[in-house]
Amino acid sequence: MSTSSVALSGVEQSAGLRSAIRRQLFIGGRFVDAGDGATLTCVNPHDNSPIVDVAMAGKADVDKAVAAAQAAFPAWSRLAASERGRILLRVADRIEANLEELARLEALDTGHPLRDARALDVPRTAMTFRYFGGMADKLEGSVVPVDVGFLNYLLREPLGVVGQVVPWNFPVMFTSWKLGPALAAGNCVVMKPAEITPLTSLKIAELMAEAGVPDGVVNMVPGLGAVAGQYIAEHPGIGKIAFTGSTATGRRIVQASAGNLKKVQLELGGKGANIVFDDADLSAAINGSAYAIFHNQGQACIAGSRLILHERIADEFLERFTRLARSIRLGNPLDADTEMGPLTSAQHRDRVLGYVSIAREEGGQVVLGGKPPDNAALSRGFYIEPTVVRARSYRDRIAQEEVFGPFVTVLTFSSDEEALRIANGTEYGLGGGLWTRDVARAHRFAREMHSGTIWINTYKRVHAASPFGGFGLSGYGRDMGFEAMHEYTQVKSVWINVDAATPPWYRR
Ligand code: NAD
């Protein structure tokens, strides 16, 4: 394992970002402390050092945020759609102007390698706000051909105040995936970032205010899931909740939303099938499959976490794949050379290591990794080596449950039918893909695989214009693309009697 690190401690590194760090809730256009003064310490996953204490919202703070959003809604929803769009375009510009600061903040708070935050996370965040800025005035109603003499038209109206609860794995990007369509469609938002990674979300709130988003339109309330998150899901003043996170929490949200029958959108876990056929371009498949699982330390709902290999190429593939995985540079995320950082929290690192024990108990073979790296410079951080495990069966826990770490489960097959059975053999269905030169097979699998996204001869590509979401236990509803605008609107059907010759119902 090659590793790298820089000499600065986490505290010193965060000092370089002091001016970018916001430590308060953002409600009604102002940064404020939590009503009860509660805070939580953000920790640098590279060395477990404290970065800053950030305010944690309680129920009273969520109430204030909802009230601010309700007050802002009439003016925001009646603003010309093109003007809402223009403001979102300015948000994208502000994000690009602050790219380096945002990328460093994300790397510090989450453990994302800086090179990924610079090249992917922050540019994609700007791109997504820009896409929805352009979308704001493209949302049209329609005219329905009903009975002669009547005009029936459909309006797409915003929902009002929307709650958005997101996880810690891609915090900056999720601000744009969630806020972009909600705001473009004319809603106001109360967003809760994950308690352990609030820093870039708070910075985005500040940039949005600078870009001209009116007070109260966006409120950012970091807080504990069981307190602020649960209360947002229950809140009678909120008309919809959009959630990204685990399937277990998604179920709780559905239950909590029942009080006022909120509209619910769920982007949940995954166990991505990544199938490599014996006719594939192996070099491309090996590189793409490593990216599919090891990018962001495997902390991705769409990670290619089940590597399903044709038995004819399995040994050669695994030999070359593990050689590549062994060469991935682990190190301090703020070092520009680092290719893989630490996991985002100690608790999550321990959970992932727990799956190494489960693998051994199930008779799996740990081919690579399965432990923290032997490097004193990384010993205080939450690092795990790239881990490759051969499972005995696709029904094993390591082939069924989401590990959400740099942990790939390897399975083999001998026929197309078997590959499809394995690929569809979990209750998840978020992202999956295949590597083959056979065009007919590629299309057949695209049709047959039970998954919201399919990649062919690539993996883990996302784009603001392409709808994203799951089948089965991976949730329902779609982020991004035109679909997302529909998620944040409700249809109103308007009937007008133009010149209908209808007889009176009651002849008197
Ligand atoms: P999590 O469900 O524990 O937490 C996600 C968010 O929900 C956090 O903000 C948390 O504070 C909040 N939360 C926790 N309990 C809550 C409750 N009772 N009510 C309301 N909110 C509550 O998930 P996590 O461990 O932070 O994130 C990892 C999970 O997210 C993985 O399962 C991953 O697959 C999933 N994920 C899905 C997508 C997708 O688009 N489908 C994207 C990224 C991550």
Strand order of the largest sheet: 16-17-18-14-13-19-20
Q: What is the number of helical segments per DSSP (H or I, 4+ residues)?
A: 16
Q: Which structural class matches the secondary elements?
A: alpha/beta
Q: Percent helix among the residues?
A: 25-40%
CA-atom Rg in angstroms: 24 Å
The proportion of residues in beta strands is 15-25%
Spatial separation of the terminal alpha carbons: 91 Å
Task: Give the low-pLDDT segments.
Answer: 1-7
CATH topology call of the largest domain = Aldehyde Dehydrogenase, Chain A, domain 1
What is the fourth-level CATH superfamily of the largest domain? Aldehyde Dehydrogenase, Chain A, domain 1
CATH architectural group of the largest domain: 3-Layer(aba) Sandwich
**Bound heterogens, unique:** nicotinamide-adenine-dinucleotide
From the spread of the alpha carbons, the general shape counts as globular
**Tally of separate domains:** 2
